[in-house]
Amino acid sequence: MDQLNSPEAPSTVGSVEMSEMTFNWDEEWNISFAGCGFRSIYYLGALSCILERVPQLVHGASKICGASSGCLVAAAVTVGIPVEQLCIDVLKTATEARKRTLGVFHPTFSLLRSAQDFLLERLPEDAHLRASGKLCVSLTRLTDGKNVLVSEFDSRQELIQVLLCSCFFPVYCGFVPPSYRGVRYMDGALSNNMPLFEQRNTITVAPFSGESDICPREGTFNFCEVHYGNVSIQVNTGNVHRVSTSFLPPRIQTLAEICQNGYVDALRFLKERNVLGAESLPHSLMGDMDAAKPACCELVRAVKESNKAQLNGHDAPHQQHYWLDHSVIKNLPVGIKKILCEACRNSHDGVSQPHHFLPVRVVLYLLTVLLTSMQLTFLLTKRAMQSGCAVICRLTSAVTSSGSTDPKSPTLEQHSSTSSDSVLSNQKDRDKNIQTVTSTNLKS
Predict the structure, then answer these.
(1) CB-CB contact of 253 with 350 (8 Å)
(2) Which residues contact 295 (CB under 8 A, 6 or more apart)?
(3) What is the structure's pLDDT at 293?
(4) In its keyword annotation, does this UniProt entry include Chloroplast (predicted)?
(5) Helix orientation angle between 41-53 and 334-347, rounded to the nearest 10 degrees
(6) Rounded CA separation 14/229 (Å)
(7) How far is CA 53 from each of CA 122, 136, 198, 201, rounded to the nearest angstrom?
(8) Which listed residue (89, 187, 265, 349) is catalytic?
(9) How far apart are the first and last CA of the chain?
């Protein structure tokens, strides 16, 4: 097993040099994904761009690294899970969380359980063999807070445990951290959010504007930056919003925008590093080509029905659909467009519903908190009563068993016979005394 402690002082040399030079295909390179919660769909847009235009940049990487939600994306890419399937699972998790009033904090929702279900269902049986030596996962040891990088896995279950440990954010995901080889770990982003950041040829990817190779670009210059876990984050209102939506699942349309931003930022990176060949089309032409393609099956059917109606001399049928605004996803591949459109339509997240209004949501939150506290009080009272009854029963059985097993302790019958014998003996003594007194009086 390959376990290394991350350096104490993070260096920014790798990212700066990568941004000032053309990509070097002669050296080994790595790809590192930072932890970002629900904004990990940004990585799917970036990966779809790279796999569409320069797939060798992903397939030829020496190591693919990640922390927290970034390690799930890294693992999926390493073992060969399609980006489209990963996009479906991310949208499904976000939709399930948004269905509940308290979101990810609702008692019936577990983000870690959702991640575990995804890994158990999607990872192939030989996933640990594909991941060993190529996948690098960042963990934070619970006892001392030190960072540990794991890149060797003995079994599929061990790979799943490592990924779950890296995704466990305290309180947000629960209170008892998962364990790996008998040691408990928590979110790798707490100690090293960008594994192998210090290496010269590492491509860093993060959905926060800063110094990462693939990241959003802000229009204004920022003098203030925060370096946390080897990730550079500029201090601005955009990043404040990005950090907040990392923990709280955004609407489907917002997730689609994040995905497209990842695609556009990855395309800019490929152009800046001169990775795209001369035969590659300009971005504007590619955008026009993609725009001419339908986004989903519903749109295809609507176009066919409209054309058929016009040929028959009828007006085009008016249908209400819940697909996304085409300008939001115009740069994405058709497969990703279809998934996003269907997710938006199925969740009806693109229209206003009663529970989306602020007063209704406030009332629902208050009712949920009240009902949750009542349920918690009832469960605690019930548990206390059950524990008290169990203790009383154990004490009663202990006293009964000890009384029946001790041969020296007299039984109830022995007590009653002893007391009756003593009464008879006392009565006889009194009779003898009376006879003695009577005889004495007669003699006198």
Answers:
(1) yes
(2) 323, 324, 326, 329, 334, 337, 338, 340, 341
(3) 47
(4) no
(5) 150
(6) 15
(7) 25, 25, 27, 20
(8) 187
(9) 115
Q: What is the pLDDT of residue 223?
A: 64
* Active-site residue, 191 included: no
Separation of CA 250 from chain center: 15
Paired tokens of 58? 């992903």
Q: Which of 191, 273, 203 shows the shortest CA–CA distance to 33?
A: 203
Q: Hey, which bits of 105-245 come out as E strands?
A: 135-141, 147-150, 179-180, 183-187, 202-205, 225-228, 231-234
The CA–CA distances, whole Å, from 219 to 16, 209, 213, 238, 283 equal: 19, 10, 17, 11, 20
- Tell me: the pLDDT tens digits for 77-111? 999 999 999 999 999 999 888 887 777 888 788 88
**Other CB atoms closer than 10 Å to residue 183's CB: what's the count?**
13
Amino acid occupying residue 175: F
**Tokens representing 270?**
């490929």
Provide CB contacts within 8 A for 268, sequence distance 6+. 217
Q: Which amino acid is at 400?
A: T
pLDDT digits (tens, 9 = 90+) for 358-395: 565 566 556 666 666 676 676 678 777 877 787 888 88
Is the model's pLDDT at 280 over the cut of 50?
Answer: no
pLDDT at 2: 46
Whole-prediction pTM value?
A: 0.68
- Provide the pLDDT for residue 214: 95
Is residue 187 flagged as an active site residue? Answer: yes
Record the tokens describing residue 223, joined without a space: 């003098």
Helices marked H in 105-148: 111-122, 127-131
Cα separations in angstroms, 94 against 246, 249, 254: 11, 5, 11
Length of the chain: 444
**72 neighbors 167 (Cβ within 8 angstroms):** yes
Q: From the candidates 68, 191, 209, 347, which is the catalytic residue? A: 68
Percentage of the chain surpassing pLDDT 70? 66
* Cβ proximity of 69 and 166 under 8 Å: no
> So what's the pLDDT on residue 5?
41
The pLDDT of 413-421, averaged and rounded, is 50
